[in-house]
Amino acid sequence: GNSVTQMEGPVTLSEEAFLTINCTYTATGYPSLFWYVQYPGEGLQLLLKATKADDKGSNKGFEATYRKETTSFHLEKGSVQVSDSAVYFCALSDQGAPMDSSYKLIFGSGTRLLVRP
Amino acid sequence: DTGVSQNPRHKITKRGQNVTFRCDPISEHNRLYWYRQTLGQGPEFLTYFQNEAQLEKSRLLSDRFSAERPKGSFSTLEIQRTEQGDSAMYLCASSFISPEAFFGQGTRLTVV
Asked: Are B3 and B23 in contact (CB under 8 A)?
């Protein structure tokens, strides 16, 4: 079945450091890929998405590129801030005809990021 | 606020009691999803509705769990005879038949 694997955390960085969080997936067909962020005690917020191979999703300085050949969707940011400290989840959703697809999300186990001043 | 709203935010209950959670989706969204998230893990799919029809249920959704979405608007998730293993964050999400779902802040259940 479909699955998502993320690098384990926590990832601890100093402010302004470069961030990479690895994500690989296993899926049949061509899923949509997402990164969600979760702040302490809160629900999930969509950070960025990509729906087809070679698409680059970007938001708030974060980027991720849909790599079909390596089945990866790594999250990157050039300069992290203390306010980026959170748990980041990679997820996939099936992508078929709208009335035939549940679009349920399959999540990785999350990667905690801690940014120190 | 036009986002997904969940109530209550926190619930503490004794083992064996019944609990019910409510989710109000974004008003124009016709799909509503329930997920469960345990500590240190990613959310896991429980069930989803399109309008008032419940179209899929996960094997995680035991007989003690029931979800409804009357009239295709808000949804409720009820857990009967709660067990300590039910302690988790219960997340609701909504969408308009697309992979992009919007999540509520969740209901954290603690069974003591």
From this structure: no
pLDDT digits (tens), chain B, 112 positions:
579 999 999 999 999 999 999 999 999 899 999 999 999 899 999 999 999 999 999 998 899 999 999 988 999 999 999 999 999 999 999 999 788 899 999 999 999 9
State the alpha helices, DSSP H only, in chain B: none
- Cβ contact A103–B95 (<8 Å): yes
CA–CA distances in Å: residue A87 to residues A51, B2, B60, B70:
22, 24, 24, 34
With CA atoms as reference, report the closest residue to B68 among B56, B85, B53: B53
Provide φ and ψ at A40, rounded to 5°: -50, 130
Peptide bond between residue B8 and the one before it cis (omega within 30 degrees of 0): yes
Name which of B56, B97, B106 is nearest A43 (Cβ-Cβ). Answer: B106
From chain B, the residues in CB contact with A91 under 8 A are 42
